[in-house]
Known about the structure:
By secondary structure, this protein is an alpha+beta fold. It has helices at residues 2-7, 15-62, 77-83, 117-129, 146-149, 174-189, 208-223; strands at residues 93-96, 102-108, 134-140, 159-162, 165-166.
Amino acid sequence: MGEDKQNKPQPLFGDNDIRHSVETVNERWEREKSRRKRLATKIVLPVALVLVCTWLITAKIFEYFPFQRVFEMPPMPEEIEGKSDNAKAEPVEKMGNSEAKIQFTVVYPDKEGKLPEKILAIFHEATDTNPSQLYAEIWDEAHAPQWLKDALAPGAKFGVGVNGTPVFDTIDNEGKLINLINDYYSTIYKDDKLVINPATYGLKQPTEEELRQRSERRIEREKEENLTLPSLKFER
């Protein structure tokens, strides 16, 4: 029996050696995990942060996710018109040549309801007899452009603008309006003819002396430097 025990093979590693080896492996694995975590903190995270920042900056510049533009359908014409009354505003009446060198724009207050008949007749006569040289638009106050409303003096029955600029001199009767039309015509077209004859409207017929003086005034105006319209000062 003693000989059998002596001849029995002995294991190369004892139980204690095996447990020691497993513990060593586990310890080394824990140290490796700690090392990898430190490595990720020091290298991987900064690199990832740089990449994310670069991507966001590029996306902002070239407008892709998450900064892409949201496509919106352009508004329909009727929607644009609905936002502004002036977008669809039209004059009450147009007459003459819309490309004429002299363009009159007339506005009447809403409380009047319409332009005085004699004033309307004057513009009809002027544009009918000179259809290529003159143009006129009639506006009601509610739809007139703001610059034209400025030409409407308090209490006036109508206001006048010439070539896009209001005439601030009070044009409150037929005689002054006729003089205004005749003076602008003679200045622009260098023609002393009467576009509107005051006598047609029951006003005084100009004498030959008055017509001569009118012609002289036109010639003097032509000599003035930096002549601009409608800032001319016409004598009434």
